Amino acid sequence: MIISNDLNEKLDSPCWFHGTEQYFDAWIIPPPPKPGEDLLVPHTAIFFTSDLNFAKGAGNKIAKVSISSSSRILDTTANYQASEKLRLSLSQHQIASRTLNIQHDFWHNGWKTGDVLRMTYSDPTLEAHLQQMAVNLSKQTGLPKEAASIVIQHNSSRGLIELICTSAKKLGFDAIFGHEVDRHSFEDKVIAQPWLAVLSKGVASNPEWV
């Protein structure tokens, strides 16, 4: 397993955090739907970061875990071959193939900056498709068009993340590691935060509540 020294030092150590709004005793994969997220694309992975303050942005209850070094982890920052294989598998997807995210340089650099986890596109056909989805959602739910557009934008990135996770699992990985963009921890500053998606049971220890 090819992983960076930074990630290797954080395995088998209780230094990974997950922010949530409710307490529980064990992880369920896929996780149960969260209240109020009925309009959002569901996730089948569980997400962790090694930055405590960043985790707090996801919920005021913080679970701390260790990640097993015996798990098969795709470190997108260190394992070029496996990351490239994942990129090529996503390039066959009808929607992902129209994004900048799966282009070679954007993909590999984006795992270090976190930009790869936010859908970016230049295809006018895809843009028109997403705009029509927002119009349809507004009609179906009564949401204002602006709010419906925000939901669709949010779902486009959630859908891409879900595709990345399910594709990595099909390739035999138990978890995938990279970075996520953090626009909230520091005023007027955007940074990359450690991001780890757990795809299989037994990777993360039972939650210890901070």
Walkthrough of the structure:
The protein is built from 6 helices and 7 strands. It is of the alpha+beta class and 210 residues long. It has one domain (5-209). The strands form 2 sheets. Strands 2-6-5-4 form a 4-stranded mixed beta sheet. Strands 1-3-7 form a 3-stranded antiparallel beta sheet. The longest helix has 26 residues, at 145-170.
- Class by SSE composition: alpha+beta
Question: How much is the radius of gyration in Å?
Answer: 17 Å
Q: Got a strand count? A: 7
Strand order of the largest sheet: 2-6-5-4
In oligomeric terms, what are we looking at? single chain
CA-to-CA gap between the ends? 31 Å
What portion of the residues fall into strands of 2 or more residues? 15-25%
Uncertain runs: none
Principal-axis shape equals globular
H/E series, N to C? HEEHEEHHHHEEE
Please give the count of helices. Answer: 6
Residue-averaged pLDDT: 93
Main beta sheet: 4 strands, mixed
Helix content: 25-40%
Please tell me the total number of domains. 1
Task: List its traits.
210 residues; four-stranded mixed sheet; three-stranded antiparallel sheet; 35% helix; globular
Brief account:
By secondary structure, the protein is of the alpha+beta class. The chain has one domain (5-209). It has helices spanning 5-8, 52-56, 80-90, 104-113, 124-141, 145-170; strands at 16-20, 46-48, 61-65, 73-75, 175-186, 189-198, 208-209.
